[in-house]
Each structure stands twice: as C-alpha cells, then as structure tokens.
UniProtKB/TrEMBL annotation:
Gene Ontology annotations of biological process type: cellular response to phosphate starvation
Name under which the protein is recorded: histidine kinase
Substrates-to-products reaction catalysed: ATP + protein L-histidine = ADP + protein N-phospho-L-histidine
Keyword Hydrolase part of the UniProt annotation: no
Transmembrane segments: 12-32, 83-104
SMART domains: HATPase_c, HisKA
A cellular component term, taken from the record's GO annotations: plasma membrane
EC number: 2.7.13.3
Coiled coil, from the record: none
Domain named Histidine kinase: residues: 124-343
InterPro entries, alphabetized: BphY/WalK/GraS-like, HATPase_C_sf, HATPase_dom, His_kinase_dom, HisK_dim/P_dom, HisK_dim/P_sf, Sig_transdc_His_kin-like_C
Species of the source: Candidatus Roizmanbacteria bacterium RIFCSPLOWO2_01_FULL_37_12
C-alpha cells in the first residue's frame, strides 16, 4: 500500500517540478528569442547608419539595399537553445525523480510508522483479550456439560470468572489510558504542582499492596519544595506504576526506596528495588507495549499485561522528561525520572 502511495506521491512531485521547469524554460526561450530579434534589429540599424554616413548612396539604392543577419545563423542559434533547454529539463527530470522518490518516502515514513504501530497495537490487544475470553468460554462450556455440577463448584466457577472479568476490566482501563496519552499533549491541563506531594500520594496508594508481601517503602525527600509544571493525576499514575513494578518483582519482606531531589534546574526522582532485576537483552524493550520479560514471568508469576511501563514512558514524554533504567539480574532495578523544574 505504501509503495503504491509513494509512487503516486513521487509522480505528483515530478508533475509539479516539471510543470515549473517547463514553464520557466518556455519563458527563457521566449525572452532569449526576443533578445536575438532585438539584437538583429539594433545591429542592422547600426550598420546601415554607418554605411549611409560613409558612402552617401543615392536614395533609390537605399530602398533596394537592406542589411540582415544570416537567417540560417539565427535559426541554428534558436535550435541550439531548444536543444540545451531539452537537455537541462531531462537532467531535472532524472535528478528530481530520485529526489522526489526520496522525499516521498520521508513524507510517508511517519504515517507508515504510525499505521504499523496501530496495527501492532490492535494485534497485541486482540491477543491479550482473546486469552481470558477463551478461558472464560472454556470454563463455562465445561461446566454446562457437567450434569453433576454442585452449588459449591458453581460458586467457585463464578468466583474465577469474576477474577477474569476484573483482569479484562483492568486491561481495558489501561488501553484507554494508553490511547489517551497517544494524543498530542494527552488532552492534559498542566499546572504548577509539588513533586513531593505527587510522590507521597503515589506511595500512599501502593502501601496497602506492599503490605500484602510485607515490603516496606522508604521515602527520602532531599527537598520538599520542588515545583514542576504538569498534570498531577498522570504524574501520580507514573509513580504508582514504577512503585507497583518495584513491589511486584521484589521478594517478600524486602524493601523499596523512592527518592526525590533537584539537580541543574531539573526535578529528579528514583525508585529502587532489590528484586529479580532485568536482563540486558530485555532492557531496551521494557517500554514496548505488552512486553514482559521472561524472567519476570517465570520467576515471580507477576500478573500484568506489560502496559504499565509503556504508559509511564508516554507520561514522561508528555511532560518533556527523561526516564532511565539501571538493572542487574538478581540484584535489583533503579528507575530514574527527570522532569523540568519551575524556577523560583
């Protein structure tokens, strides 16, 4: 599809370029032709005037005698001009054809990347939705065929189905949030907010989840008066995602630390855990949608769809920030966030 569109766009570029080139060629040819004719008239007038001054011919001779440049010479000059213009336009056609094809590719590349990304998103989302739906359908079909299904078994089935529905709801909520952050500026209203308050709100939301695994969350605020321009709810979501990941992939009875500080006019925060870590081959991919490292799946059995860090990256980009990751297998992970700070 894009090859055909690229060829069509190239053809339009060429059509426009050649129209302009031919138009100016005709103008140049017309102007130079008129200059030749003007030169011929002036030259003939100059020669006749000089001839009349030097030789004083009789009046009848003047009427019979006219000086003109060789018509064949003028015709040859015009033909050479036409030939040169044809050569120039042919060169323009060849060169502009290559440039037009290149520029058409550059023009369509963002659209192509966007469509491919949307197709991947739809494919991945469909796959993630199909799995729990298939599980629900299979469980209910098996139960329907079981004539000896007891009330206790039915309740257990309903409870499991409710869990699957909750997972589907969580997935749909994440997909909606991700779609929102895909829009320019995410339709967010920025305001002056305090980084300490944002982080503390996120910590308060995660603490109940951390208590289930007996994980402590330690906070360290170097400066409680760090102001940034941003959308408070989305930034709270950002730190909730980072803290939730830290808790999710940390062993029981361990600890997670979150710090904030300012440096070189920027507001910075880091989330550190002592969990299973991320392998080097997985690090470049962790912000991709629906990506989950095999280590996390096999060792921790952590529930999730791999959308959290993708959402976090979108939030960071909308706030013109930077997120860095340092991790080692079986040692832990440090996520560092850098955001523009409002100067006092």
């Amino acid at each position: 599809m894009f090859i055909s569109a690229r060829i069509k766009l190239t053809a339009w570029y060429l059509l426009i370029i050649m129209f302009i080139s031919l138009f100016f060629s005709l103008v140049i040819y017309r102007v130079l032709t008129q200059e030749f004719e003007r030169f011929e008239r002036q030259h003939r007038f100059r020669i006749e005037r000089q001839f009349n001054q030097d030789y004083f011919p009789p009046p009848g001779f003047r009427q019979r005698f006219t000086l003109r440049l060789d018509p064949e010479l003028i015709k040859e000059t015009k033909n050479r001009l036409k030939f040169m213009l044809i050569i120039i336009n042919s060169g323009i056609l060849v060169i502009s054809g290559g440039l037009a094809y290149f520029l058409a590719g550059r023009t369509l590349r963002p659209i192509k990347d966007m469509v491919e990304e949307q197709n991947r998103f739809i494919s991945d989302a469909s796959h993630e939705l199909r799995t729990p739906l298939t599980s629900l359908k299979t469980a209910m079909e098996v139960s329907l065929r079981d004539k000896n299904l007891s009330l206790m078994q039915a309740k257990k089935l309903i409870s499991e189905n409710v869990d699957e529905v909750n997972k589907l709801q969580s997935l749909s909520d994440q997909l909606l949030r991700l779609a929102q952050f895909e829009k320019p500026k995410g339709n967010l209203i920025f305001e002056k907010i305090n980084l300490h308050q944002v982080v503390q709100t996120a910590v308060n939301k995660i603490r109940p989840i951390a208590k289930i695994k007996n994980i402590s969350i330690k906070t360290k605020f170097q400066d409680r008066n760090i102001d940034i321009s941003g959308h408070k709810e989305s930034l709270v979501d950002l730190f909730v995602i980072l803290l939730d990941n830290a808790v999710k992939y940390s062993p029981r009875a361990s600890g997670v630390e979150i710090k904030t500080w300012s440096n070189d006019g920027s507001a910075q925060a880091s989330v550190t855990d002592k969990g299973i870590g991320i392998s080097k081959q997985d690090l470049p991919l962790i912000f991709d949608r629906f990506y989950r490292a095999e280590t996390a799946r096999s060792k921790n059995r952590a529930y999730g769809y791999g959308l959290g860090l993708s959402i976090a990256k979108k939030i960071i980009n909308l706030h013109k920030g930077i997120i860095n990751v340092k991790s080692e297998d079986k040692t832990g992970t440090i996520f560092t966030v850098q955001l523009p700070r409002i100067k006092k």
